[in-house]
Each structure stands twice: as structure tokens, then as C-alpha cells.
Amino acid sequence: MITFIEWIPRGAPQSIPIQNEMENPIFPQEFSKMDLKLNENLNENENENLNENLNENENENEIEINENEIENLNENEINEIEINENDDDDDDDGILNQFATRIGDLMYYNNPQDDPNLVQNDDDDSEKDDLIIKNTDLLAIAAKSEEEMSSLEIYLYEEKQDNFYVHHDIILPTFPLSLAWLNSAPDSYLKERSIESGNFVAVGTFDPTIEIWDLDILDAEAPIAMLGGLSEKPRKRRVKKKTGRNRGMRFEIEPILKYKPESHTDSVLGLSWNKLHHNLLSSGSADKTVKIWEIPTQQCLHTLSHHSNKVQSVSWNPKNDSLLLTAGYDSAAFICDIKQNLTKNQGITKFSLSSEVEYCAWNPIESDKFIVSTDDGIVQYYDIRNHSSPIFSANCHKKETTSISFSLIPGLLVTAGTDKSIKIWDLQGNQLTFIYAKEFPEIGKIFSVKFSDDSPFVVSFGGSQGKVSFWDLTTLKQVQDRFISRIPQMNSSKKK
Prior knowledge:
A hairpin with an 8-residue loop joins β25 and β26. By secondary structure, this protein is of the alpha+beta class. The two termini are 39 Å apart. 18% of the residues lie in helices and 40% in strands.
């Protein structure tokens, strides 16, 4: 399944990603050392057996010459044959030393193109071209989980051709639940790569760990940093368990988990990177807490405990770097002002909701308003200056409304649900107007949908069938008629 979709901003990735190298690669010059070590490890009996086998093979492979022909050869002709044979051996040795190295029965060619057995792949050049990221390309990250493997798939979308493919992927050690793209990383890593910022993603997992991966590294084997998690391998203890009436007690082995200081103690369900204050990352967890992390130092700055149940979604305000929106399974959303005294719950405002939260998001144009979706299909829209009641409530999907995304085009909004559909809405003047709906049975239950900020009519989405897709909404006449005229309004909002 695809649990989450996140876009990578244009210009953030390197045009040619870095190939991850093995820590101890075996170079050609090391082959001779390996051969010597192998010979040294052979004992006397093995050497004797080896020589016997070689002699037997030589005898078997000798060319039989007719005895009558040998008798007819004079001494000079025999000497000439021996000289020619020796010349051939010398020539072979010269060619071997110049172009190849022999290791036992194996031959290594200094230049692979000299190997007659090597099949040249004509697709190599096209594969290299596919790895080059152009300025016109759009890239999205999908958190994917299958029965036996979890991964990040980085998709490249060619907008003009309406074509997409997996550019590269990253194997994850555990089930991914949430993503947040960021250009910040721990200071030590930025110094190591001699860069000031980069192309990274934070991954919230089923474990109480937030992993940070470098998306410019192909075949990355490990995250560059981990926020929270276990401080040591789990230990075990014996605990008593009742087995039934008059059956006494039995013992079971239970793991003892020791977490890093300030770590979450349960799954990380939501993540949000502060685009105005690049060093800050917020996380919401099934342990009922919200944490604010300082990425360069990998330290937790604040732990908030205002929720009474799992925290499903978190989001920083796009225009006010101190306002954080959080929402959870306690059927409540909160606005937290981190400039206030959070230890005493000052600067925290509660908004009551209809049911358990699936997702929350700020309106990027009217940044004093936010929207929340719930597991009963309801979407509620709020103004932070009036927390007594929502501006409106709308039943957008038959089942859970799992995801919401605002476009930078004013008023353009999409919702997605477990009913396998995506719906397009116009949110103008505090009114929500339905525009279009489409079902995607090949995607299954849709768990995540996201607009691209670089191409605000393009959405990426994924769901229960483990597939990702892209949709250019300008292919719809209903969208063109309603929203194309608002592009100048979007450009003026960006300038502000």
C-alpha cells in the first residue's frame, strides 16, 4: 500500500544523483593479493591433490598424433614444431600481461571492452539518461509498504508527456506512516558533504523513530540521522500470566524497551517541516504527544501533551512560523503558538470536531483558516479567530475522508477517501462548491493525495493497491472554466 505522498520542490535535487559506493570495494589490483592469500592457505595435501588433478587433465587433453606421422618427421621438422609452439606460448603470455590478468582458471580483463565474452548492453545509455533530472521534471516521494518490504519510491513525472516512472527507491527497515520533505539536515552531515542545504525527507515509522534520508544518494543503505527511537537493543524479562481457573501461573518473555531521551514511545503518525524556520520539524505520535525537533542538533525542543488520544496529523502555518496545527483521535484540533509558554499549555486553543481525525491542512492563501477531515467522511473548515463553531461542515465522502490538499490556485481543493475516489472542490467566500469526482479502482482505497506547488494543477496520489498515479486537472473542462482565470491571482499571492 501507499501510505503517504510528498512532493520534492523543483531545483532541490541534484541533476545527477550520487551513486552510493561500497565501503570496501574490491579493485582489480587486489585480485593478485587475494590469489596469493588463497595459495598460502592451501596445505601440502591440497597442493599435492591439485597438482595430481592438473597432471591428469593435461594428459587427457594432449593431442594424439599418429605414430606413423612422427616416424616420418625428421629431426629438423620436430625442432621447428617445438620452436613454433614455444613462440605461441610467449605471444599468449604477452597478450595476457598487456590486456588481462589470470587468477587460477579465471581471467580478469583490465578493460571490460576487451573481454570477448562481455555482452554490451545498448540500454545502458538510456538508463543513464533516465537518471538525469531536468529543470522541467516533477518529483514525488511515495511511502510504500508490502508484506515483506517497505520502501520509499521517488517518482519522476514528465508533465508535457504525462509520463512517470520510478526514478529510484530506498529500502526502509520498518513500516512508513508519514513523510515530510526538508532541505535541512544535521550539521555534521552538511559539513561532511560540504553543503549548506540539500534534498532530504523525514520518515515517520511504525517504530517510535523519525528517520532522515538523503534523496540525492542512489542505493542509500541507512538514514543520515534518526530522531528518537531505542537507545539500546530490547532486553527481555519474565512476567507472570494467568492461564485459567485452578491452573496456576505461567511465565512469558516480555521485551524491555529503553528509548532515547525525549523520544516518542509509539508510532509516528504525522510530520510537518517548518518552511519558514527550516531547522524545525514537528511530529505527532500514537503516544498522544507532539514534539518539536531542532534538525541541525537532532534535539527535541518541546514535548506537548494537550491531546488525550493518538495525534494523527500536524501542520505548520505557511505564513506564521510559530503556529502549529495538530489533530488526533480525540476528535479535536489544536492551534499551538510555540512563542507562548507551552509548558503551562498557554497559547493552545482547542477546536472540537465531529469524529476522529484523518488529516488537517492550512489554507495557503487565507492562512488564518484550516480544514480537517474525519473518519466519518466529514470535512470541517475553521477560522482560528473563532473556535466556537466551524465555518462549514460538509459530507465529502461516503466513508473516511483520508486526505485533503490545497492548490496554490485560490480556491482549488481536492479530497480523497477510502471510497476510491478523488473529488475536486471550489472553496471561495467560505463556501464549498463541488466541481468533479472520479473513482480510481486501480489505486484502491486512496490514503494520500497532494498538489504540486510547482505545477498547481497536478496532483499525485496512492492507496491500498500499492500504486501511485498523477493527474493533470487541466485536462478537465470543468477545471479550466473555473480556475484558469485565477492564475494571475495566484502569482500576486506568491509575491505577497
